[in-house]
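ENTRY TYPE: paired fold submission
RECORD: A
CONTENT: sequence, then structure tokens
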Amino acid sequence: MKEEIRQNGKTVLESEDGLSVGMIFNNLTGVNLKGLEYRNYLDCVLLPMGLKKGTLEMFPDGVPVKSGTIR
């Protein structure tokens, strides 16, 4: 199963490993990380991944199942 993270309709990350996309989505939306740890994570990944603050969506096999916000 292909999983994707999209921002503004554009795929910014995809994988078929069944684990990494969900974990990264949760990291980006502050579920797994809080406070300074979250800020530091965003500082390291936003620009290299081509992301901006705002809404993200997660799609397994092209079906939207989660939405979250990078703050």
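RECORD: B
CONTENT: sequence, then structure tokens
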Amino acid sequence: MKSDFKPVVDHSFNFNADWGVVDCRVLEVEPHKILAYSWGAYGLETVVTWTLTPTGAGTHLRMEQSGFRADQRQAYGGARSGWPQFFDKLEQMLPRVD
């Protein structure tokens, strides 16, 4: 996946992957706490929000993608299967990051 992302509100960027291109725009940035951006592709207009919360053992990462309509079952199913794959890869990579 490739991106020209910058954590600046109103910055537009794209995610490019083998399954297609997603148009995004940064909606909210609170350093070390929150990142939210629009996620638009194939008629889908949702919001992805990442939240970091300090814990006694480290940091809790929460991701939420909201805004799916009832008629977007296929897109919702794709997100439900795609995000866990992303998190599996992220979990494998994190121990290697210093």
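NOTES ON RECORD B: The domain at 2-96 is CATH 3.30.530.20 (Alpha-D-Glucose-1,6-Bisphosphate; Chain A, domain 4). The chain has one domain: 2-96.
STATUS: closed
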